[in-house]
Amino acid sequence: MQEAVPTIEAESSAPRALERDDAVERTPLREYLESFLVTIILALFGTSFVVQAFKIPSQSMEPTLLIGDHLLVNKFIFGGSGTWYDKLLPYRDVRRGDIIVFKFPFDDHPHYVKRVIGVPGDRIKIVDQQVYVNEKPLAEPYVYHDPAAPYDPFGDNFPPASPNFIRRLVRPEWADQILQYVSGDELLVPPGEYFAMGDNRDRSWDSRYWGFVDRNAIMGAPVAIYWSLDSDDEVSEDESFSARIRGLADALMHFRTRTRWHRMFHEVR
Q: FRET partner for 227 with CA separation of 20 to 30 A, picked from 84, 87, 216, 235?
């Protein structure tokens, strides 16, 4: 921030008056306020349209993303709306294998992060933990199976073959709809919808249990981890304000010892 430069005395009274007026108009306080206003505008524009910070609250994407990872989410990558200028901008379609951040379709629409397994038109099934897309086995080097996880029929084999599946495992809304999308032993992904699952396949609450992700609910794709704090505790988005403040204070107090330095600026893939 540049400080006001002292004016030099001139011989006539008129120039002195002009110089005094300019000094009043360009005070350090005014320059600070102008800079602050521009910064706020740019920050609001950036978080609204380009990038947004997001914190991983659960273990569903481990080991790709850990509890305590703080992400930068690119909100611009899937931003096309069908207008003529979309071709001139770096938009692209959501692809199978993309990690996406989206609004959960129920409750208060908290933000979820999962990996896209099926795009519109795909046929999905799981047989003995192997995912098949359009009758071909899907290569998933990112997947982790937890041998200590309790047995879950939707984890080993999906979709259900009859209405006699264990309905308590799924959202009631999805339990009433799922068989509408089942043909033979495959789940058909309808237009405008996506099927998403967590990489920690046995510890993920995902499309198997609550349904498809609507295209309009997808906010963007995480691109990098800008900070990672070692934590084993899952965090709820609806935790109280005081709990968030305590969590922030604890993180700052243990910043040096609990920061996962090796994950800083790590690309998300």
A: 216
Distances (CA, A) of 184 to 161, 167, 225: 8, 20, 41
Q: pLDDT by residue (tens digit) across 254-266?
A: 677 888 999 988 8
Judgement on whether residues 125 and 81 belong to the same structural domain of the protein: yes
Chain center to CA of 267: 14
Q: Among the options 60, 207, 228, 231, which is catalytic? A: 60
Is residue 60 part of the annotated active site? The answer reads: yes
For 36, half-sphere exposure in the C-beta direction (CA atoms, 13 angstrom radius) is 6
pLDDT for the residue 258? 83
Residue 84 in domain: yes
pTM (global) more than 0.85? no
Its domain, for residue 156, covers: 56-267
Give me the CATH number covering residue 60. Answer: 2.10.109.10
From 114, 125, 204, 231, active-site residue: 114
